[in-house]
Amino acid sequence: MLDRTNRKLLYTFQSTAGRLPETGQPMRCYHCLAMREIHVEEIRATVARLCQEATCLLPEDVVGALETAREREQSPVAVKVLDQILLNADMAREEMLPLCQDTGTTVVFLDVGQDVHITGGYVIDAINQGVGGGYTEGFLRASIVDRPFSARSNTKNNTPAIVHTEIVPGDSLRIQVMPKGGGCENMSRFTIMLPNAGKAGITEFVLRTVDESGGNPCPPIIVGLGVGGTAEHAMYMAKRSLTRPIGEPNPDAEQGEFEAELLEKVNALGLGPQAVGGRSTALAVHMATYPTHIASLPVAVNLQCHSARLKEAVL
C-alpha cells in the first residue's frame, strides 16, 4: 500500500505528465528510483567471456556423467571412445582450446528480473556484440550464415545469436550461453500426436528419433523432451531442458519417473558412444511439460552432444 508521501509523488507524476512543475524537466517515477540498473556494457562483456568459457570448459556434471558411463560400459571399443572424450575435455580445459571444432550456434537464455532496468542501449545488440567479440577474440569458428536459402554468406563472427528471454521475479539478470553444434541440432524432431497417444506414443517417438540419428549427434547424448503447450513452446521446452544439470532431479515426480524409463530404453538401443555400439547412448533424458489444447499432444525432441557446453552468469 502507498503511504501519503508516495501517493503525493504518484499524483504529481501523473498530473504533470511526468515533468517537474517548476522547470518542465522530465521527472522519474518513484517506482523507477527503486529499480536496479544494469548497463549493457556489463552484459556485453559477460556474454563475450561466457562464449569463450563455454566452448572450452565442459561442465562438471557432464564430466561426471561421462566418467560414470565409462565405469559402466562393457564394450572395449566404447570404453576407448569414452576415454578419448574425457581426455579431450581435460586437454581443452588445460589449454583453453575448443572442445570441438564446431563451436556452434550461440543460444542465449536470458532470465530478466522484473525489477531490473537495463540501461545504455538495446540488450539484444549488447548480446550480439558480446558474441561477436567473444568468438573473434577467442579465435572460435564462425559458423553462422546469412540468407540461409540462397547466398549463405558467413557473418564472420557467429552472430546473430538465438536469444530466448523470460521475465522472472527479482532484480537480477541470469545469462546462460549454450553453443549448440550443428550435428545434434540437425537431429531435432517435432510432431503433434493424437491426444490419446500418451506415454507409449511419446516413448516410440523418442526411441525412433535417437535410433535414426545414429552417430550424427555425437553420443552419448542428452535428450531434451518438451511435451505440451503449442508447437513452438514444445520446441523451446525441449531445448531449455538441456540446461538442467545432469543428476538434478525433475521437480515433478511423474516426469522424473518417465525420464528414468526413457533413459533405460534409449540405452538399450545399443548405439553406444559415437555409435560404435555399447550401453552409453545417452547420459540423461530431461523432460519439461506445459498444459496443452484438448485436441493436441505436441512432442518435441532436441538432442545435445557429449560436449554439452553451457556457461552462465548472474548479474
Structural class of the secondary elements?
alpha/beta
**Number of structurally distinct domains:** 1
Percent strand equals 15-25%
Gap between N and C termini, in Å? Answer: 29 Å
Residues in helices, as a percent range: 40-55%
Describe this protein with a few key phrases:
315 residues, alpha/beta, four-stranded mixed beta sheet, 10 helices, 22% strand
Describe the 3D structure.
This protein is an alpha/beta fold. The chain has one domain. Helix content is 40%, strand content 22%. The chain is built from ten helices and twelve strands. The strands form four sheets. Strands 6-2-7-12 form a four-stranded mixed beta sheet. It has a four-stranded mixed beta sheet with strand order 8-11-9-10. Strands 1-3 form a two-stranded parallel ribbon. A hairpin with a 6-residue loop joins strand 4 and strand 5. Helix 3 crosses helix 6, helix 4 runs antiparallel to helix 5 and helix 8 crosses helix 10. The chain is globular and about 75 Å long.
